Amino acid sequence: MNEIGKKIKEARKKKGLSQEGLAESAKVNLRTIQRIEKNENEPRGKTLNLICSVLDINAEDILDYGKQTDKSYLVIFHLSVLAFLVIPLGNIIMPLIL
Questions:
Q1: CA-to-CA distance for 18 and 57, rounded, in angstroms?
Q2: Burial of 55 (0-12, 13-18, 19+ CB in 10 A)
Q3: What is the DSSP letter of 39?
Q4: Where does the chain cross the membrane (predicted)?
Q5: Which residues, other chains included, contact 52 with Cβ-Cβ below 8 Å and sequence gap of 6+?
Q6: Which pTM value belongs to this model?
Q7: pLDDT tens for residues 17-69?
């Protein structure tokens, strides 16, 4: 939640808009914009979409929900190399056991 207000504030400043200008363009109350930027409130769906459309940014970029780097595939990838060692050893050991 802390990042949403900060990102909206940065995007608004890049665009050269004041809080009043953003509120007027997005048809949102000025106090709502102030609360969002101070991280007192988190914008709801429609409000967030209105603000993002004025700022020409994607709402998904602001939210960052579920954006986590998953590196578990690297462990599996590295362990798969060991299969090339185990299979030949199995071909030697299994006939000895049998």
A1: 17
A2: buried
A3: T
A4: 73-97
A5: 58, 59, 62
A6: 0.63
A7: 999 999 999 999 999 999 999 989 888 889 999 999 999 988 887 887 656 67
**Domain 2-63 adopts which CATH fold?**
434 Repressor (Amino-terminal Domain) (1.10.260)
CB-facing half-sphere around the CA of 61: CA atoms within 13 A: 12
Buried b (16+ CB within 10 A) or exposed e, 34-54: eebbeeebebeeebbebbbeb
Q: What is the pLDDT of residue 65?
A: 65
Q: What b/e string do you get for 6-25 counting C-beta neighbours within 10 Å, with b at 16 or more?
A: ebbbebbeeeebebeebbee
Write out pLDDT tens, residues 76-93: 888 888 777 777 777 788
Q: What's the CA gap between 71 and 74, in Å, rounded?
A: 5
Q: Are 8 and 51 in contact (CB under 8 A)?
A: yes
